[in-house]
Each structure stands twice: as structure tokens, then as C-alpha cells.
């Protein structure tokens, strides 16, 4: 479709010559012989205006409606003068325009300038179209992140298990881009409590979808992964931590989801205080003894989803009254300060060692305050997750 050009010119021959030149070049040309007619034609949004400044008796006043029409409609304007006005004078009288024609008498220069202005219009329209698409994509992404955040929040424990032997506390602060952290505590048998914390690689909706799926896989009500059925009482056998991790590694291959995740999985016996665990590439849970010494629970294997490169192992440990277990995500130790320095394991371990005399919930609250101070109040680049378990058998104090 031919571009629409509007030529507003006086009765001098130059305007008619320009109209003939541009029509011969394949453009659709409308002409106007006064400013009022030009203003009416401008409301139909031509692609380009060629304006003879000699139409205006008082250019500073008479051209104001045309100037507003061009600016509002983003219509470029090239100037010329039938009476030979100086180009610098034309620029002064119409600073809102694209400038004067370099030489209204030279055909090639006129066509080059017109085509350049029309190409600029086309590029501007493409820019605006891409900007609109980008804004729509941003809105879609924000909605996706909001939905992912709602999903992630819905998977967190609504309440903590009731136990005469354990105290529990947790803190969770999601990052703006929605990380892949997920944790849970569940009573899975009369003598067993399950605790896990996992971190799916990446952020956003895709990471949230994997957390949903893993959450469902670890539901004792719908999955045989936690409890393996037997044909005799009690009609089930609890899977060991290494068995659970191994099965998850089979169900969530990287090739299928393009995600892997780290995970710490524990089974706790409230009667004996014994803990069985497997740690799959996750920051090792910490055992803080009542005397303040720290042990890391680092037996396990590699990332979940890597295809069983190395068999997963598990270990056992014995809790004593007052001992505390801390599961956490790497968002804690890798939290940066405004200068880019990471919080690190040493600071974190010191906080846990020095807080053993505080109530469990108060200790986690103190840790979060220190993290806030360290980061300067900035939003964390990754989820911050802390899950704490204290062994208090028979109400032991």
C-alpha cells in the first residue's frame, strides 16, 4: 500500500512539481493550498507532511495548529519554501519539524529525504509494537510470578506437628522472582516424623511447578514413595531416607524437567531421639548440641535428577535432650551485603552456636534480624528458608 503524503503549498510552481515528482515515484499524494485545508487533511494522519512555509503570513502563530497536529499524531514534517527562504530561518520558524528539504529542486535528494522520513516512521512503529509486546510479556511474567508465589506459599505447613518430644520453628522469606524452596514436617507413623527441605534449581513458574510435583510425591496420603505397602500388619513399611531420595532421582530426571534439586530428608523417632537422614547435594543440616558444638549432616549423595551417578547413602545419629537440628537453604549463606560479600557459613554457624540458650523461635527470629541487617534491607536474591527442630523428650528442660 502506497504511503500517504500531504503537501501544503502556495500557488508557486515548486509545490506542484514536488507533488508530481512524488506521485511519479509511487506515493499517494494529497495537496492543500492553505493552512486550514492542510489542518483538516492532517486529521486523516498522513505518513508525512511537506509544508511550504510561505503559506503562513505569521509562521510563529499560524503554524501552531499544524505543529500540534504533527506532534500529537507523530507525523514527520519536511519544510520547503516556494520563495527561497533561508534553511536556517525555516528551522527557527518550525523547530518542531524534521527540518527543511536539502534541495527542493533536486529530485534524488527529495526522494531520499522522503524515504528516510518514512523509514523512520516504520522503525518507530516497529519499536512501539515491540515495546507493547514487551510490556505485555512483563505483565504476563508478573502474573506468572504472582501465581507461582501463591502456589509456593500454599505448600508450606499450615501447622506444625504436635509432639511431646520435639519443638519446631521455621522462617521463610521468598525472593521476588520466586525460588524453588520447599519444606515440610509430617507425622508419617506413630514412631516416625518426616522432615525435609529441598531447593529446585532456577526461579519462577517452572521451579514452582516442580516443587508442587515433588510435594505430591512426598504426600503420605497419595504416594507409595513414603510408605511401601505390605500384605501383613502394619501393612506398610516406611521407606528409608536413601530409598526416598533414590526414587525421587528416578522420577525427576533432568532430561525430563530440565531442573534438578537438592534435598535434605530426615526421619526422626520421638521415642528414642534417633535420626536417620540422607542429604542430596543440599547444604548439610546442622546438629547443634546443647553445649554449642556443631556437627554437619553431610552423608548422602549428589543432586536429585542426575540419574544416580553415585548411590545415595544415609546415616544415623542420636539426639540428646536440648540438641537442635537446623535445615536451611543456600539462600541464607549466600545472601549478599550491599557490597556483594556473602553472609557465609562461618557467620551462620556462629549465630546458631551462640543462640542455644534462647527459645527456638526466638533464635530463628534473631537470625532473620541479623540477615536483614547484613543485607541492608535489600530483597534477597534467593529464598531464605530456616527449619529448626529441638529434642525435648518428656518435657525435658
Give an overview in words.
The chain is α+β, with helices and mostly antiparallel strands and 397 residues long. The chain folds into two domains: 4-127, 3-Layer(aba) Sandwich (Rossmann fold); 155-395, Phosphatase 2c, domain 1 (4-Layer Sandwich), CATH 3.60.40.10. Helices cover 38% and strands 23% of the residues. It has helices spanning 13-24, 35-42, 59-62, 64-73, 87-93, 107-154, 204-217, 241-251, 254-257, 330-333, 344-354, 360-375, and strands spanning 4-8, 28-32, 48-52, 77-80, 166-173, 181-189, 192-200, 227-229, 236-238, 261-268, 274-280, 286-288, 294-296, 300-301, 315-318, 324-328, 384-391. Strands 6, 7, 10, 11, 14 and 15 form a six-stranded mixed β-sheet that branches. The protein has a five-stranded antiparallel β-sheet with strand order 5-17-16-12-13. A four-stranded parallel β-sheet has the order 2-1-3-4. The N and C termini lie far apart (86 Å). The relative contact order is 0.09. The model has no long low-confidence stretch (mean pLDDT 89).
Q: Given this structure, which CATH class of the largest domain is correct?
A: Alpha Beta
Structural class: alpha+beta
Compute the number of structural domains: 2
CATH fold assignment of the largest domain: Phosphatase 2c, domain 1
Note poorly predicted spans: none
**Annotation, overall tally of beta strands:** 17
Strand content: 15-25%
Percent in helix: 25-40%
CATH superfamily of the largest domain: PPM-type phosphatase domain
| Count of alpha/pi helices | 12
Largest sheet: 6 strands, mixed
Whole-angstrom Rg:
36 Å
What is the H/E order? Answer: EHEHEHHEHHEEEHEEHHEEEEEEEHHHE
Architecture of the largest domain, CATH level 2?
Answer: 4-Layer Sandwich
Mean pLDDT: 89
Distance between the termini: 86 Å
Oligomer: single chain
What gross morphology would you assign?
elongated
Amino acid at each position: 500500500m502506497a504511503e500517504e503524503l500531504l503537501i501544503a503549498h502556495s500557488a508557486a510552481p515548486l509545490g506542484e512539481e514536488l507533488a508530481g515528482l512524488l506521485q511519479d515515484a509511487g506515493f499517494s499524494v494529497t495537496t492543500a493550498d492553505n493552512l486550514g485545508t492542510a489542518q483538516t487533511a492532517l486529521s486523516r494522519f498522513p505518513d508525512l507532511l511537506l509544508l511550504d512555509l510561505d503559506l503562513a503570513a505569521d509562521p510563529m502563530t499560524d503554524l501552531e495548529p499544524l505543529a500540534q497536529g504533527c506532534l500529537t499524531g507523530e507525523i514527520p514534517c519536511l519544510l520547503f519554501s516556494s520563495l527561497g527562504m533561508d534553511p536556517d530561518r525555516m528551522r527557527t520558524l518550525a523547530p518542531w519539524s524534521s527540518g527543511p528539504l536539502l534541495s527542493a529542486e533536486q529530485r534524488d535528494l527529495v526522494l531520499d529525504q522522503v524515504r528516510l522520513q518514512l523509514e523512520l516512521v516504520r522503525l518507530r512503529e516497529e519499536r512501539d509494537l515491540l515495546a507493547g509486546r514487551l510490556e505485555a510479556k512483563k505483565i504476563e511474567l508478573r502474573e506468572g510470578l504472582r501465581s507461582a508465589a501463591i502456589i509456593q506459599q500454599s505448600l508450606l505447613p499450615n501447622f506444625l506437628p504436635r509432639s511431646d518430644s520435639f519443638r519446631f520453628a521455621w522462617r521463610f522469606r521468598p525472593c521476588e522472582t520466586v525460588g524453588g524452596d520447599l519444606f515440610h514436617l509430617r507425622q508419617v507413623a506413630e514412631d516416625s516424623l518426616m522432615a525435609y527441605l529441598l531447593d529446585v534449581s532456577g526461579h519462577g513458574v517452572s521451579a514452582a511447578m516442580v516443587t508442587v510435583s515433588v510435594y505430591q510425591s512426598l504426600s503420605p496420603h497419595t504416594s507409595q514413595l513414603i510408605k511401601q505397602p505390605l500384605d501383613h500388619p502394619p501393612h506398610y513399611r516406611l521407606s528409608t531416607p536413601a530409598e526416598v531420595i533414590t526414587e525421587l532421582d528416578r522420577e525427576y530426571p533432568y532430561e525430563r524437567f530440565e531442573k534438578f534439586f537438592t534435598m535434605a530428608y530426615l526421619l526422626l523417632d520421638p521415642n528414642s531421639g534417633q535420626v536417620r537422614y540422607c542429604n542430596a547435594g543440599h547444604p548439610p543440616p546442622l546438629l547443634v548440641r546443647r553445649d554449642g558444638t556443631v556437627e554437619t549432616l553431610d552423608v548422602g549423595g549428589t543432586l536429585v535428577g542426575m540419574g544416580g551417578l553415585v548411590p545415595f547413602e544415609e546415616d544415623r545419629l542420636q539426639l540428646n535432650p536440648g540438641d537442635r537440628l537446623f535445615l536451611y537453604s543456600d539462600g541464607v549463606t549466600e545472601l549478599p551485603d550491599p557490597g556483594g560479600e556473602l553472609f557465609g557459613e562461618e557467620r551462620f554457624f556462629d549465630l546458631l552456636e551462640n543462640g542455644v540458650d534462647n527459645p527456638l523461635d526466638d533464635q530463628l527470629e534473631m537470625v532473620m534480624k541479623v540477615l536483614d541487617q547484613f543485607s541492608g534491607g535489600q530483597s534477597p536474591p534467593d529464598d531464605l528458608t530456616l527449619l529448626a527442630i529441638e529434642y525435648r523428650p518428656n518435657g525435658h528442660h
